[in-house]
Each structure stands twice: as C-alpha cells, then as structure tokens.
Amino acid sequence: MSRASIAPVRRFCSAIAEASSPKSSSKRRRKPLSPDPYTPPPPPESFPPYEELDCFRFELVHQSSRSAARVGRVHTPHGVIDTPGFVAVATNAALKAVDHRPLGDLLQLIFCNTYHLLLHPGPQVIKEAGGLHSFMQRDRPIITDSGGFQVFSLAHGSVTDELNMKKSRARDESLLLEVSENGATFRSYRDGKRLTLTPESSVDAQKAYGSDIIVPLDELPPYHIDREKLHRSVLLSHRWEARSLRRHLEDRRNQAMYAVVHGGIDEPMRQMSAEYLTSLPFDGYAIGGSLGKDRYELFNLLRFVVPLLPKEKPNHLLGIADVESIQGSVPFGVDTFDSCFPTRLGRHGTLLTKRFGRVQIRQGKWKNVFEPPDWEGGLQGHTLAYLHHLFKAHEPIAATLLTLHNLHFMAEFMESIRAKILNDEI
C-alpha cells in the first residue's frame, strides 16, 4: 500500500495517542474506539421482503442462445432504458461542452455525481429547484452515485495511478482525512471545508436530487491491497450499504436503489459480497470496486460475478464503457455501462468512427479529407477537414462537435449490439 493510502490511518492513530497523553488538554475528548472491523452486517431477515416498485421494473426482451448476453428494458418513472446501454456521465449535472436537451432518446440514461453536486450547488439548492430533472431540464432517467468513488479515489487514485506509482494532485493534498464506521471524512477540493459523508447523508442527498436510480455508500479500496484488509473493506461496505438501504426504505419516493458488489479480483470475496447483497431488497446490482488492472482481469471477473446476480433484476458495470470493454462484457450479461470515455475523447480531439476507428483529428492527414467521419450517423454535415481546421484553430465549438459525434457513435454502437443479440449473433 502506498504512503498516501496509510497516511490517514497514521494521523488517526496519532490523534488517539495525543488525546491519551497526560500532556493533552483536559478539554480534548478521547475518540471512541472503532467496532470490530470483522463485525458482520445486519442479517437479511432484519429487512422487509422485496417489493417491486410500480414505476420501476426490468423486462427481459431476449436471451441470446449463444451467450449470457441479453436485451432488456428498464422501466423508470422518467422513461425506458434499452439494454445493453451506454450511460453518459454528466458529472456536475451537465455534459461537458454539450447541451443534453436536444439529444432526446439518444441518451436514455445519464449519470450525475453526488460528490461534486454535494460540494456545489448543494442538495438543498437542487431540492428547491424541484430536483435534478427540473434543475437541469431533463425529462428522461438519471442515475446518481453515492459520492464514495470520488472520496476514496482521492486517497489512492486510479488503478493506472497505482500501477505506474503516480501521485495525483488530490492525494498530495491528503483530501481524505478519516474513514470510520460512521463514514468518510474529507476536505473539499473547492474550498478546503471539512465534510463527512455517511450512508445516511449520501441517501438524503440523493433523495433531494430525485434521481431515478440511487446507489448506497461503499468503500473503494485500492487495487493493491492484501486479502485481510480487503475482507475488512468488503464488510465495511456491506454495513454501510445496509444502513443506506434502511434509510432508503424509510421513504422510497419512486427511486430504485442498486447495491454495489465488491471484493476486488478475489473470487471468494466477490461471491461473499454477491450472496449477501442479493439477499437484501435492492432493485438492481452494480459491479464496483477494483475491476482489475486490464481487460483480461475484468472479463474473468465478470465471467464469475454476473451469474451470481439475479437475472430478474438489472445490473450495471460502474465506470467502464470503452468500446472494447463493452464488446467483451456484453456476452457475460452486463446491462448498462457508464463512463466519461467518449466525451473526454471528443474534447481532446479524438473521434470514434466506424470507417476509420479512432481518428486523431489534429493530425495533418485529415486536412484535405472533405468527407464526414462516417457516411451514416454522427456528424454527417461536417467534413474531417473542417473538424481538423476547427481543432487546430482552437475554436471552442470543435470540442462540442467532436463530443456530439462520439455520443451519436456510442448510441448507434449499442443499438447494433442489441440487434446482434436479438439475432443470436453475440
């Protein structure tokens, strides 16, 4: 484990030692001892039986005869989501460089981040606006996460960061201050304010947002972690998710809640996580945590985990949605995928095309190509030469046009995958 990962633990231990010292102030309160980290989560019988929401259900349209790939429809209060489907990420309740409103059914589901919206404008502002749908003028489904991913990624970064031994700006600033049974305490990257995210406060924020699908708070451990620490982390996530579910069930508000299955690439841990969480009354299941260092580990993980999930409920792969990963994951039965991958590529000058594969529009070879990126779909009205010119001239609209093209590409790509499953070609 990296020094950045253990720094919060050292600070916590130092604080306890200082409080116990005779030299410490008599006014300083000693922090209560944490419970046994191996404490099991609440038993399934302590929860009510599952009751399907009238406004939320999964409909299986077709099961492929060649694989576990399936076509389905997730019915939500704000419309239907065709699966397998791509979920665009609108981090701050906005797609970067693109207005989501004219895109219509192209983006059946978008993903907004609780952590960022918690810091600004705050749940109360969004609640006063009438919820996220009213605030951002969207009449189609929205999914929000718990905020946990962003909080914990501040401590150890991505798997790529770990493998390359990189240090991110956030980790240098030690924004994650403490992890306890209560929740995660961190410092805002915006103004340095100290905040604590608990299972209950995460659910309360998502209730204020009014999103169609919400996610319980979980801990995101780093890729490089020993099995004992991974075991403790999975148990903590289960206790947090159980608390999140209890809070949610107090007032469901026509919102579905997806559990998050953890366990890294350790199959027994994943099985333990899946068995416990599928015994609770969740509406769907997300596959989260560390998903491997490469696609080989990802696909092996999905081959093992997806069959452990109830086939009558939808599932979601968190944070993965590049073309190659989607192609390899669909045969295992994954329903939806979210990622900022295609929009980020567009802003940085990369087009996803059927004709040429990935197009680096800044390259001079496109300067005199007076044809659209693809003959059908996407940016048919603009040529590669024009897009090359806009990008080289640093025109802001270049990011918008390339992002729009990539969103069209992803929608058409997922439509083609559904068609192949319906024909039993996948």
Automatic annotation (TrEMBL):
GO molecular-function terms, A-Z: metal ion binding; tRNA-guanosine(34) queuine transglycosylase activity
List the Pfam families hit by this protein, alphabetically.
TGT
* Domain of life, per lineage: Eukaryota
What is an annotated GO biological process for this record, any one?
tRNA modification
Q: Does the keyword Ligase apply?
A: no
Positions with biased composition (Pro residues): 34-46
tRNA-guanine(15) transglycosylase-like domain residues are 68-425
Task: Name the SUPFAM superfamilies on file.
Answer: tRNA-guanine transglycosylase
Region of interest (Disordered), residue spans: 18-46
Keyword match Glycosyltransferase: yes
Q: Which UniProt keywords apply?
A: Glycosyltransferase, Metal-binding, Transferase, tRNA processing
- State the protein's name: Queuine tRNA-ribosyltransferase
Protein species of origin: Gracilariopsis chorda
